[in-house]
Design goal:
Low-confidence stretches: none
Largest sheet: 5 strands, mixed
CATH topology of the largest domain: Rossmann fold
Helix content: 40-55%
Number of strands: 16
Radius of gyration: 23 Å
């Protein structure tokens, strides 16, 4: 009987030697005359355990990890193909506490399916939402999204149902669905992991959105630094056949600009122009790609749609708290012991993520600061760790959840240096269209340098500069850069002394 092994082929696992482990397993099996099926799946999100090898047994999939090339021989000697005991044996994958405590909805097939097999996707429950959608009136699909409480997972948390209704109600002979997969924030990787590990979920979500708003064409704008995601999407589109019906999707590769994560700059780039922000109005929902009504969401937002259509809006809405409904895949990075992808309902506290899932700092020192929401997110101090992960709760403390990226720092961090990094990041990545962002960020670096050199009188000037950037910038790039700067100044003033 042929044994089946799952070994991730996503970027994180590859960086940790997954290809070499796969070659070693294949070579050892051949030398022993063992017939083997090796599936390169997506990651389960437990990055500290990669490369993670899963073996299919009568008792279910048994996990071993992290597996290195020099451990492959001992795994075979321990009869790991039958779930044999070994120091790397983690037991049944689904029972690993880190996974078992999660509520996996949008990532339910991540690490489970063969990302290049439509048959496997459908066999694991995929496609049910798209199967039901043609029998539902477009307006009813839009209403289901509104009733679910789904909000954009790209950072602004704008109610998805309002966007869908606007595009649906706007007249146009041609409409588009655009997926913003330009995931450029530090500490974020959920979009990449989903595209590499469950691309059909994203394609299905886009096709359902197309049926709802009256669009027959879609674009996925992927950052150029994600070659494995691009390859996985292209393979899935080739394998899709007539799965998507009349909806056609094209993958576009970005050109390395951070500001193209802003939706109007992204549209400019797809059109072949320089990626700079457009003035609003008109909104993209009314006059977007090529001047036509366009629905724009990020990967996780669109990938949430199949689950809502398949399981019903109420089941999705029942998860979460307040106006933050459903789940969000949070990404733990930085100085953290157990980094990776954690999908839980809104309402879990930041402290629970950092310690119950993250295991505290990797260095073993106390965690001092956490940045939530990417490089333009606020730095939070330890007293704020008990804040529930909820859009409104974070807004009340001057922070935001953004794309769900969480970067941890221990007590050796210099927060004045981190504030400078935020200003420098903006100066490098600014598209240059507006003066507050283009010039303000450059002056901000200079002012922080003077403060760090001992000129405390410059703090007032830094505060005025940040206010100008917030009020005068053309897009979120400039208006959000002061958030990490001011949060560092407010919560860690001793580092600026």
């Amino acid at each position: 009987m042929r044994a089946t092994i799952y070994l991730p082929g996503d970027a994180a696992a590859l960086a940790l030697g997954a290809d070499a482990v796969a070659d070693a397993i294949a070579a050892t099996a051949a030398a022993r005359g063992i017939e083997l099926r090796l599936v390169r799946n997506g990651t389960r999100g437990m990055v500290w355990l990669e490369p993670l090898v899963e073996v299919v047994t009568p008792q279910g999939r048994i996990a071993y990890g992290p597996v290195t090339v020099d451990m492959v021989g001992s795994l075979f000697a321990a009869n790991f193909l039958a779930g044999g005991d070994h120091p790397l044996r983690l037991g049944p994958t689904e029972q690993i506490p880190w996974l078992a405590r999660q509520e996996r909805r949008v990532t339910q097939r991540l690490g489970v399916v063969d990302p290049r097999s439509l048959t496997d996707y459908v066999a694991r429950g995929g496609g049910e939402g798209l199967r039901r959608a043609p029998a539902v009136a477009p307006a009813a699909i839009v209403q289901a999204i509104a009733d679910s409480g789904l909000r954009g997972r790209g950072g602004a948390a704008f109610p998805a149902g309002i966007k869908w209704r606007t595009v649906h109600d706007t007249a146009g002979t041609q409409k588009y669905v655009v997926c913003n997969a330009d995931e450029g924030d530090s500490g974020t990787f959920s979009d990449r992991m989903l595209m590499e590990g469950d691309p059909f979920c994203l394609l299905e979500g886009m096709a359902i959105a197309g049926l709802a708003v009256g669009a027959n064409r879609g674009y996925i704008y992927v950052r150029s630094e994600y070659p494995h995601a691009i390859a996985a999407l292209q393979a899935a589109l080739t394998a899709a056949g007539d799965f998507l019906g009349q909806f056609k999707i094209e993958v576009r590769k970005g050109a390395g600009s951070y500001v193209c994560g802003e939706e109007t700059a992204l549209l400019e780039s797809i059109e072949g122009k320089r990626g700079i922000v457009r003035s609003k109005p008109p909104l993209p929902a009314i006059e977007g790609l090529f001047g036509r009504p366009t629905l724009i969401h990020n990967v996780i937002t669109l990938a949430s749609v199949p689950d809502i259509l398949a399981g019903g809006a109420a089941a999705y809405r029942d998860l979460g708290i307040g106006r933050s409904r459903g789940t969000l895949p949070f990404q733990l990075a930085g100085n953290i012991r157990h980094g990776g992808l954690v999908e839980v309902p809104f309402g879990v506290t930041l402290r629970e993520l950092l310690y119950d899932f993250g295991g505290g700092s990797r260095s073993g020192r106390p965690l001092r600061a956490v940045q939530v929401g990417g490089p333009l997110g606020a730095y939070l101090a330890e007293p704020q760790f008990d804040t529930p992960l909820d859009y409104e709760a974070f807004a009340s403390i001057g922070a935001g959840l953004g794309h769900g990226g969480i970067v941890a720092f221990d007590d050796t961090v210099d927060m004045a240096k981190q504030a400078r990094y935020a200003m420098k990041f903006c100066a490098i990545e600014s598209c240059g269209k507006c003066t507050p962002c283009r010039i303000g960020s450059t002056r901000g670096v200079e002012v922080i340098d003077r403060i760090r050199a001992g000129d405390a009188a410059q703090i007032e000037l830094l505060e005025d500069l940040c206010e100008t950037m917030v009020q005068g910038s053309a897009c979120a790039m400039g208006s959000m850069t002061p958030i990490p700067v001011m949060s560092a100044l407010n919560h860690f003033p001793e580092d600026f002394a």
